[in-house]
Amino acid sequence: MLCLRAIRPFSWRVFHFRPFSFEPLISQMNNCTDEEQIFGLIEKNKSLLSEKQVGCALSMLWQFQKQKTSSVKNVDCVRNHPQFLTLCNLATTKMGFMSDSTLVNVLYIIQQFGIEAHDSLVEALVTEAWRRLERFDISVLSKFSSCLADQHLHYSPLMGKIADIVNRNLENIQDLRSLSVLMVSISSLISQRFQEKLVNKAELLFDTMDSSQVNTARRIVQFLRNIRYRYYPLLERCNKVFLSNMNHLDLDSISKILSLYYSLQFHSFEFILMTKKRLTEMIPLFDHPASCVKLFVALGPMAGPEEKKQLKSTILLMSEELTGQQALAVMGAMEEMESRNSRLIKKITSILHKHLDNYKPVELLRITQALTFLHFQSKELFVRLRELLLSYLKVSVIPSEISILVYALSMLPSAHLDEVRMSQIEAVLPQCDLHDLNIFAASVLRCIQYDHMYLDNIPGKQLKVLQKLDHYGHQRLQECKSLNLLWEEVKSLKGDWFADSLLEETVVTLQRLMDEINYINVAGIASFISRTNYLSTSLLDKIASVVLQQIEKIHPFAILAIILPFSTLNYDPPQWDEFFGTCIQHLNSYLSVLDPLVLVFLGYSLATLQYFPEDLLKTIFNIKFLARLDSQLELICSSLNMTVQFRLMELNRAVCLECPEYQIPWFHDRFCQQHYNKDFECILDKRRNPLPYGSHNTTLEKLPKIHLESNTQIAGSRLPPGAEKIALEFLDSRAFCRNIPHLKGKSAMKKRHLEILGYHVIQIPHFEWNSMALSTRDARMDYLRERIFGEGKS
């Protein structure tokens, strides 16, 4: 009897907290059609709710939000409802009873409703989850990692623990969806070796993924963006998922993918073409500022004239409703679109001015760059910008932030920095990487130029800072012991200071570390050499060697970048025939996949090296290909468009002159008449006397209209017996490698083509023409007579 009486109160307590059957209440929740019905059930049953019912109620509330469009979401209203607070209190008291999945799901939903990370409930849920961490299955672990990422805890010990669990259990993970979430969450704190393991695992599991899982593919691309690894095999497979689901992609998804592709510099013509069509269809669907801005940013740079006009009109109509961040996004898109719509520029600028005090330093830099590019002038705005930048600079202690602020200040109309600011720059230089040093150098050089032009004075402090920049730049290069670490710092470096002060030391460092060049970084190193125009035969030989040894691991998309320095710098490596043959063989199966622009640049690059693969040329000079190329030209900026057209013309000319047996027609007469400037030319008779200039010339833009069997037929056209055509070309510094007077590929090819056309080519290098020996007019005339007419001709 005593035993029974002792048991009864305990049983009642259990019954009070946990009703014997909670299924009917959950069923009622599942049948609710809005938040008020859920809140009604909570109010009636709050004393009886179990941990499972609390989880279900929160899940239903979030499900209702997901079903709403952004314009009708009422997150704030739900969060501030008294019964939502009841749910939060119940979650606090019952979290110990929750299953792992319910616990983490509650944390996720609470955060989605905007509960701050420092809230006691969020802290308690995170602590409880941390306690259970080792027993979480992969799906729960991935969701928990996403919650931590939303709290910006990417570098926390807890995220490090999750990374360790993933590393230990990677072989057993078979769910790519969950793995992709984890990959993004832990990407900030894992080693390169671990990154490669995750990439390989994702590639292995990719075929197990349903082809409709767009979000999984997007997260994989996001992971590659986060670790700065343009891994083509995975990017290509993810791109196929996006293409196959294009009709189901919404504006948010397309915007995210475009942003990721831009960051990775991954170009897919098919994706852009289909995206343009899909986004154009959306233009009439949106009338909310947030959606219209997102559409303007995504579609604007690739839109046709009519679509651009429509987009700009829409933004103008709702400009008064734009927030500061939306105006900033519009301004960035206008810069990319090379827009000159003065009315829109003025309107957006006025919004930026109104919100100027709310922008971060990096956003102020973006505003300054955009205003400079768009040639917008406003003394009042620039004065306020300068005040804000200086106020940030006075309190900033982070080198990267200081470099951003100084760079923005140097772009303003009055690019002057006083001694105090120069001393601040000088103080942080020992902490800077090469990227920051390069930004500081560009800024200081601008200030020196401004002071020289407008103040007629160059303060000694600026010159001292410039010397210290040189010192720390060389020191950082000399102390570098890892090619991958070096590459992260130098891959985006450009500008006069880098070229004049650090380029040679950078090449020496690359040569010292070149044993670390492999299939992963070889294309990047090759691109760097192309961009800097610095001929290092040892580096190029190493690149060729790595390609020959590891070609199977190199994706065909990377071949253009690899070939480019050899073409640009006019250099044939040892075993050049095997090297180029291997590259082309590796490309052949991808000729129908590669972007038209890439194939044009590839064909031109090979042509400069006198390499003319027939399959590639037959692919390019094809009606269907040229139609695809025309479609792509409509999507790119005007400067790149013109470059592509010139390269196609030059490739067309090279094939007609050097491979007439391919019977590819010359079809650039009209283009050349509009754009091409003739070379200076003359005709000498057999006694080296000049002949009257008439119809004897066959210049580069007027090729024979028939396919000729030999060069002699071209050379002998319309010239008197014994006469000779002379082409005189002045070569500036761009015609030569930066470090040695070695003729670059483009100029060498031009000389070759003129010779095929029957010219005797005389090239006048700038270093001879501008030398002290030719400093007078008479000396230059004597020099020209000697080069044109031969020694002793007066």
TrEMBL record:
Domain of life according to the entry: Eukaryota
Pfam family membership, one: FAST_2
PROSITE patterns, sorted: RAP (PS51286)
InterPro entries attached to this UniProt entry: FAST_2, FAST_kinase, FAST_Leu-rich, RAP
UniProt entry keywords in alphabetical sequence: Mitochondrion
Domain RAP: 726-786
Gene Ontology MF, one: RNA binding
Chief localisation class: mitochondrion
GO terms (BP aspect): mitochondrial RNA processing; regulation of mitochondrial mRNA stability
GO cellular component: mitochondrial matrix; ribonucleoprotein granule
Transmembrane segment boundaries: none
Locations listed in the record: Mitochondrion
Name of the protein: RAP domain-containing protein
